[in-house]
Design brief:
The protein is built from 19 helices and 18 strands. By secondary structure, the protein is an alpha/beta fold. Helix 1 (22-36) crosses helix 19 (471-493) and helix 12 (318-329) runs parallel beside helix 13 (343-355). The longest helix has 23 residues, at 471-493. Bound molecules: adenosine-5'-diphosphate and alpha-D-glucopyranose. Residues 21-23, 25, 309-311, 338-340, 366-368, 371, 390-393 line the site of adenosine-5'-diphosphate (ADP).
Length: 495
Amino acid sequence: MSRGLKILFTASEAVPFAKTGGLADVAGALPKALSGLGHEVKVVMPRYYSINRSKLEHVPGALGVPMGPMGTLWAGLYKTVLPGSHVEVYFVDYEAFFGRSGLYADDNGFSYEDNDIRFIFLSKAAFELARKLDFTPDIIHSNDWHTALQPALQKTRYAFDERFKNAATILTIHNLQHQGQFFKGAVDVAEIGWEHFNPHEFEAMDGLNLLKGGIANADAVTTVSRKYVAEIQRPEFGFGLDGHIRAHSARLFGILNGVDYSEWNPFTDPHIVANYDIGDLSGKALCKRDLQECFGLPQRDDIPLVGFVGRFAEQKGIGLIAGAIEGLAHLDAQFVMLGTGEKWAEGFFGDVARRYPDRFGCHVGYSEELAHKIEAGCDLFLMPSLFEPCGLNQIYSLRYGTLPIVRATGGLDDTISNYDPATAEGNGFKFYDATHEALYRTVKWACDTYRYERDAYTTMQKRAMEAEFDWRYSAMAYEDIYLWAYYTKRSARHR
Ligand code: ADP
Ligand code: GLC
């Protein structure tokens, strides 16, 4: 195709506007990288309460979104660009759905009861926006369950519209655990037609499963690492959809996420006390002392400092860390943790920090600044996930010269290679069994390597810092899938 593709990219969160996890990092970076390859991307997301309207440009005129029995709901529209790019981001402003403190759940962690309606609304709003802007997409790219309705919408509710006829639909699964399962009544609001409420599309245990229907209807399905492509076809990782995914595996591809190095780079990072790079790591030692001070830990240069940043969710292996805690507390090592989520974990790790003030620091909350300080100030980064579609922090850690300790699953397995003491190869430390004993032994091994095998540790550190996970490479892989889906769909129409 000689011209660039026109891509309509919808996500429920995007950096720097709203973020609960890695999806936001992806939605804030991939469109920029695609634009860098010559494509025209328009990003669509909600205008949440936390997004200040005064910093956005108001788009005149209201956006009518048809919602079946609810009638047409009229939304406001705002826009801006992704920082450092010309990529337009459109914010769908509908106070009753998005004017709340949380993105998906209230302050106590309970999911909003009308999440089905809220995200059906977002999914349709993107189509209505394209019509309003006179934008004819070649690609409709949806992300996770929130917008997984879009491939079916193109074939049903919007099938009459010539504008969408040639578009190929791509659905990216960032996390199969969250599928968007709701009461089936929402099919009326979705307006896809009850004939699509069947066990091969949207029906699961007599309820509506948005992700399942999205997988069935998308022209191509992608997920965020190759290992995860294989894993989700097995019952242990399939969350009930492994059979469904196997049935659609011919259209399933794995593309690893990239890193936005304008955001995650120790040489330019504005959040850390001293910048550094591979040629001079002296700044990293200052970052370590600063981090120890932030968490009230003794400022020792010789002690291995291990960090954790992430949602306190079972997925992230917090149960394994909790199980290993007494052993970890008796290593000559320090640990700093940053996260929020499960209440038991917030209480447990806060308590551990009070019991072992010289060993553990824990900050319950969300802090962009502290996340950067942990990447820079630690010697090792712990990510013992039970499953991990891609994982971003271990890749950020590499650039900061902070060697990851990971469980060999999903993107963690694809990005981290195990230290081999015989050859000093590798860029981190891996364990396989999802047990707290395996976690403990691997953390101990990593700490011993840091302390007693300095040459091997620094060789790996340099190797880690040199690795490139530029979004450009990932964007090129998406481009291949877009083109494959686009042409495959066109030729199928003439068969
Ligand atoms: P997931 O999307 O499953 O949560 P990822 O590793 O893909 O996991 O991405 C998590 C992102 O969210 C990273 O950018 C990480 O730094 C950030 N993050 C998670 N928890 C926090 C927190 N408590 N404070 C700041 N950033 C956080
Ligand atoms: C999900 C996954 C995480 C991935 C992120 C971005 O939230 O849990 O592994 O990195 O999405 O794709």
